[in-house]
Amino acid sequence: MAAPTDLRLPRYPREPEDANAPLDFAGYRSTKLRHPSQPLVLLPQMLTEVTGPLLGPGRLGELDNDLTRQHDGEPQGQRIIVTGRLLDGDGRPIRNSLVEIWQANAGGRYRHTGDRWPSPIDPNFSGLGRALTDDDGRYEFTTIKPGAYPWKNHDNAWRPAHIHFSVFGSAFTQRLVTQMYFPEDPLFYQDPIFNSIPDEKVRQRMISRFNLERTVPEWALAFDFDIVVRGREQSVFEDEEDED
Amino acid sequence: MGELLTTPSQTVGPYLSIGLPWEDGPFVVPEGTEGAFWIRGTVTDGAGEVVPDALIETWQADPQGGFDHPDDPRGRAESGFRAFGRCPTDENGEYRILTLLPGVLPGEQGQQARHIDVSVFARGLLNRVVTRIYFEDQDNSGDAVLASVPAERRDTLVAKKTEDGYRFDVRLQGKGETVFFAL
Fold first, then answer.
1. At CA A236, angle to CA A232 and CA A237, rounded to 5?
2. SS3 call for B98
3. Where is the Intradiol ring-cleavage dioxygenases domain (chain B) (predicted)?
4. Residue A66 contacts residue A140 (beta carbons within 8 Å)
5. Which domain holds residue B107?
6. Are residues A43 and B45, on separate chains, in Cβ contact within 8 Å?
7. B18, B67, B145: which to substitute to probe chain A, counting the most A Cβ within 10 Å?
8. Does the structure show a pLDDT above 50 at A2?
9. What is the pLDDT confidence band of residue A243, given thresholds at 50, 70 and 90?
10. Which of A4, A55, A89 has its CB closest to that of B108?
11. How does the average pLDDT of chain A come out, rounded?
């Protein structure tokens, strides 16, 4: 085992305060009893924190990235292609990495026993997808545009249409779960989950971009959504070859 | 600093169980693996109510203290050990992870005691919270991270021995609140 002085580890600088939502956010009622009340303790980034699970092909089924072909029939709704790149803060693509999504159907209903919104369940839509990023860090899903749905957070509360995204990055420090939104959604202004991000410019990073180039004529619209996880500090110990 | 600004975190919401759990998620090692034990625990909120819509993820060294990862400067351990566990809480707020004891690791000041890093996701958590599991029957005396935690809260990070492994409860808020870390 190497002596501690030989531990040349990458560092992932902490993000500015407004890069994320506060854990206690009154507008989103469910945070009330679930946010830690004690200050967080700073965890030095050692071996466990700068490494992370590299989850690759073994986790993927053939149709996992096409949510419209997972059943005998086609799901209801507007077919969309969602594509984008998984990058770190220095613009390096994160390759061969697992991206997981889940979402409501076109009527805004999740295939879940807990969802009581009386919009029909679509027998041809499970709302679950997985994909691997390629050498450019690019992923792609074919799915259905999810609908908005009401929830009980506040008077006449509706969630803007969104797709949940889960990515691992390549280190424990980079683990991220987020939500992708759609351009110009009229429900943004009243949604406390979207608005939990304090800085308006930061919020915009969760909104996908309509991508005409990637649409398929007479078949599917397309949206582009790049996901950026925390970058690592440039260090003199890094190989030049790692640069992209 | 990086050049691109990061995508912010959002809550997993109540329906995380559609997309995140895996059938083999709780099994860091297959059942029957020599030396394997269960880590079991309950996730509770500030009112002491169980949290039935949370997900626990674990990440750890292998029993020899290695990581199957290119950034381990001591060399990549290709032991075939997945090192990653994932389990949603059930209706009683309980999770379980079958794993092996991680090895002792070098640290900045001396050695790090055997530990597992944990992420907790749930409805009502806008970002994951991160904690660490230590083991009550191991030598934790030289661990700098544990020493940096206020003494009266340290035991929230130490899993207690049980019949088939260890118990590690997660209290998100209030009395006995688990120590959570900023990364």
1. 85
2. strand
3. 37-174
4. no
5. 37-171
6. no
7. B18
8. no
9. very low
10. A4
11. 93
pLDDT in tens, B118-164: 999 999 999 999 999 999 999 999 999 999 999 999 999 999 999 99
Would you state the pLDDT for residue B33?
Answer: 97
ipTM: 0.97
CATH classification at residue B78: 2.60.130.10
Is A32 in the B-facing interface, judged by CB distances under 8 Å?
yes
Q: Which residue of A has its CA nearest to B84?
A: A53
CB pairs under 8 A between A and B: 257
CATH superfamily for A59-228 is Aromatic compound dioxygenase (2.60.130.10)
Q: Where are the domains of chain A?
A: 59-228
**From residue B57, how far is each of A41, A97, B21, B104 by CA, in Å?**
19, 17, 10, 20
> Is residue B166 pLDDT above 70, yes or no?
yes
Q: Find tokens 């002792």 and name the residue.
A: B104
* Least confident range of A197-206, A234-243, B96-105, B154-163: A234-243
Those of residues 64-103 in A touching chain B at CB distance below 8 A are 87-91, 100-102
Q: Is residue B137 part of a domain?
A: yes
Alpha helix segments (H runs only) across chain A: 47-50, 200-203
- As for how many domains chain B has, the answer is 1
- Look at residue B150 and tell me if it is in a domain: yes
Pairing outcome for strands B94-99 and B37-44: antiparallel
Choose the closest CB to A206 out of B8, B16, B148: B8
Query: Rg (Cα) of chain B, in Å, rounded?
Result: 16
B180 token code pair: 């959570």
Of B72, B115, B177, the CB nearest to A37: B177
What's chain B's average pLDDT?
96
User: What digits encode the pLDDT tens for the residues A78-133?
Assistant: 999 999 999 999 999 999 999 999 999 999 999 999 999 999 999 999 999 999 99
Q: Amino acid letter at A159?
A: R
Q: Which chain A residues in 153-192 lie under 8 Å from chain B, judged by CB atoms? A: 164, 166, 170-173, 175-179
Q: Is residue B86 part of a domain?
A: yes
Nearest alpha carbon to residue A193 among A28, A26, A19, A22? A28
Question: Cα angle at A151 between A163 and A110, to 5 degrees?
Answer: 45
Domain assignment present for B130: yes
Do the Cβ atoms of A48 and B105 come within 8 Å? yes
Q: What pLDDT score does B11 carry?
A: 98
